[in-house]
């Protein structure tokens, strides 16, 4: 299955129901499997999204990202570890 990168603005729109793109973001996320796509995030996008949610919406919303049912395999390291 091909993957599509979910960026910080999409994550924000998915969590903030008052965001003007909320409905569209939900619809797109739900449609991905029908198009043979699965979402993925990088660890940097998770960190950036968490910081944005904390600064704009406060701790309860920042916690929603950390406690969301995002599958661990949907989060990829942006940089390879040095050996």
Got a strand count? 3
Low-confidence stretches: none
Distance between the termini: 29 Å
Query: Whole-number radius of gyration?
Result: 13 Å
Write out the strand line-up for the largest beta sheet, numbering strands in chain order: 1-2-3
If you had to describe this structure to a student in words, what would you say it looks like?
With 83 residues, the protein is an alpha/beta fold. The protein has one domain. It is built from four helices and three strands; from the N terminus they run E-H-H-E-H-H-E. The chain has helices at residues 8-15, 22-31, 43-57, 59-66; strands at 2-5, 37-42, 75-76. The chain has a three-stranded parallel beta sheet with strand order 1-2-3. Helix 1 packs across helix 2 and helix 1 crosses helix 3. The longest helix has 15 residues, at 43-57. 14% of the residues are buried. The mean pLDDT is 85.
Give the helices and strands, then pairings.
Layout: E1 2-5, H1 8-15, H2 22-31, E2 37-42, H3 43-57, H4 59-66, E3 75-76
Parallel strand pairs: 1-2, 2-3
Helix pairs in contact: 1-2, 1-3, 3-4
Short description:
The protein has helices at residues 8-15, 22-31, 43-57, 59-66; strands at residues 2-5, 37-42, 75-76. It is α/β, with parallel strands linked by helices.
Descriptive tags:
4 helices; alpha/beta; three-stranded parallel sheet
């Amino acid at each position: 299955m091909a993957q599509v990168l979910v960026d910080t603005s999409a994550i924000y729109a998915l969590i903030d129901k008052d965001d003007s793109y909320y409905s569209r973001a939900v619809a797109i996320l739900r449609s991905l499997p029908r198009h043979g796509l699965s979402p993925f995030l990088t660890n940097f996008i998770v960190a950036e999204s968490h910081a944005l949610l904390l600064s704009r919406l406060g701790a309860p919303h920042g916690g929603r990202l950390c406690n969301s049912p995002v599958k661990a395999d949907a989060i990829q390291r942006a940089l390879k570890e040095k050996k």
